[in-house]
Amino acid sequence: MAGGTFVSTGEVKNYGGKVTVFVIMTCMVAATGGLIFGYDIGVSGGVTSMESFLFKFFPSVEQKMKNAHENQYCKFDSQLLTSFTSSLYLAALVASFFASATTRALGRKVSMLIGGLVFLVGAILNGAAMNVEMLIIGRLLLGVGVGFANQSVPVYLSEMAPAKLRGALNMGFQLAITIGILVAQLVNYGTNQIKEGYGWRISLALAAVPAFIMIVGSVFLPDTPNSLIERGHQEKAKTMLQKIRGTDDVNDEFLDLVDASEASKQIQHPWRNILEPKYRPQLIMSIAIPFFQQLTGINVIMFYAPVLFKTIGFGDNASLMSAVITGLVNVGATFVSILSVDKYGRRFLFLQGGAQMLICQILVGVVIGLQFGTTGIGSMSKGYANLVLILICFYVAAFAWSWGPLGWLVPSEIFPLEIRSAGQAINVSVNMLFTFIIGQIFLTLLCHMKFGLFFFFGGFVLIMTLFIYFFLPETKNVPIEEMNRVWKNHWFWGKYIPDEAVIGAHGHSKAKTDA
Predict the structure, then answer these.
(1) Gene3D superfamilies per the record (predicted)?
(2) For the chain, which terminus, N or C, has the lower number of CB atoms within 10 Å?
(3) Is the pLDDT of residue 68 over 60?
């Protein structure tokens, strides 16, 4: 059964309008919300491989590292250390549900503002931490900030952007995440050179910078037309739509947004409604995509890159430098997806990226397996260590133009307005839950599964690539309120979508173009 060959042939509207400088600027400012998340992912792995930090807060790990004749796979295995990294994701998970209500009731920008403020407090606490408790409380506040930002920013971007550029502008969020990771890795490399041993404080406290950018940005951002209509400001919404589309002729799109908002007002309980059969495809995607995104194994590479490179035998500076290299690849490859996502589509990037990641993971597992065997004792020659670094770069590149950005883009663009906030909250919380679980168990898994860990993630990459092939229809260039048409035409999901759920069945203007 050749499932992936079904292409939507239903007519999809083209609302016209230009791409305005205003829209590009607002989307760039909003996307900075990704910086706080990225900085955090990048900074925690580097700090946890710094000896001065471990000595102060996690002396037992530091002892293990000193005993170098130990099993290479197990030298960082500490539940307290991983809970420092992963406590953030639990807080983000809980916060995303509160953020969902805020985003719906007060608008997208208020959520961004709250996120930035809470993150700022967390960064200050972390930089000034005197004991493990202060560290963990700071991390939890950072997590609340991340939960609010990851809930509101992708939705904001998808609503502001015109359909034909929605992919590229939405990926600004992922680009900001990768830039955040890279900056953090560079900061770690720099602060690790500080001989007095307070470098980790600077690394952690500098998280206040992206938080500040986000706070200032969200104060000046306009609200999205969808959000204004949802809160009853129709005239303001129409003016805003004319401004972001650069034309006065926005009637079609405006009426569709109002229709979508009327439909969404009938819905008192988005959480109960999202369980109805007609939202089944969106619900499955909002769970499966973030679940699979984490099981690519990417965060393991990103969080623990310095730790991982130390494990395969790079020295202190070399391991932080290798992490910087993977960070650079990550940013570069994200540009590839920004340029190609609205042209070649989402499915092509998902499938190509999946295949490339699978090959790299198998090869990394084989090389590490041959060098350290199952005992984990041994060392790696320079040549092999560099080979692993190169393979990991190819793997990171594949992720950065496929599952990385698309894991946030696709779920944020497929939900009808009435369940959009709830859907995005599910997406964020599933993402955070699995980031937490994998962050928490990774060092233990590495200790027990050894090089087989790479095959374990490889297996998941194979499954997720097949899942996309059979079950995800192409969504490029489809206006966000017209998405149901795409599901209706899909070989598997079509039966869940009732005919009346496809917008465009009513009277006003039918200026349409074939997709």
Answers:
(1) MFS general substrate transporter like domains
(2) N
(3) no
Q: How far apart are CA 485 and CA 496, in angstroms?
A: 12
Q: What is the DSSP letter of 107?
A: -
If we measure between CA atoms, which residue out of 276, 124, 263, 272 comes closest to residue 207? 124
Q: Is 161 left (phi over 0), alpha (psi -120 to 50) or beta?
A: beta
CA-CA distance, 409 to 249, in Å (whole number)? 28
The SS3 call for residue 491 is coil
Burial class (CB in 10 A: 0-12, 13-18, 19+), 71: middle
Q: Please check whether residue 207 lies inside any domain of the structure.
A: yes
- The domain in which residue 60 lies consists of 21-223+267-501
Cα within 13 Å of Cα(300), Cβ side: 23
Domain CATH code at residue 486: 1.20.1250.20
Alpha helices in 402-451 (DSSP H): 403-414, 420-449
Dihedral sign (CA 475, 414, 174, 461): negative
Any domain includes 14: no
Q: Could you tell me how many residues make up the chain? A: 515
**Which residue type is seen at 364?**
V
Other C-beta atoms lying within 10 Å of the C-beta of residue 288: 17
CA distance 49 to 63: 13
11: phi then psi, degrees, rounded to nearest 5: -75, 140
Average model confidence (pLDDT) across the chain: 84
Answer for the pair 273, 282: CB distance below 8 angstroms, yes or no: no
Q: What is the Cα–Cα distance from 506 to 503, expressed in whole angstroms?
A: 7
Residues 5, 6, 10, 13: is their CA dihedral positive or negative? negative
| Helices and strands of the chain, counted as H and E runs | 24, 2
CA-CA distance, 429 to 301, in Å (whole number)? 21
Structurally, the chain folds into a number of domains equal to 1
Report residue 127 as tokens: 């930089």
Which of 376-404 are b and which e, b meaning 16 or more Cβ less than 10 Å from the residue's Cβ?
Answer: beeebeeebbebbbebbbbbbbbbbbbbb
SS3 content of the chain, % helix, strand, coil (to 5): 75, 0, 20
Which has the minimum average pLDDT: 69-83, 412-426, 474-488? 69-83
**Mean pLDDT along residues 414-439:** 86
Both tokens assigned to 195: 């001989």
**Domain assignment of residue 247, yes or no:** no
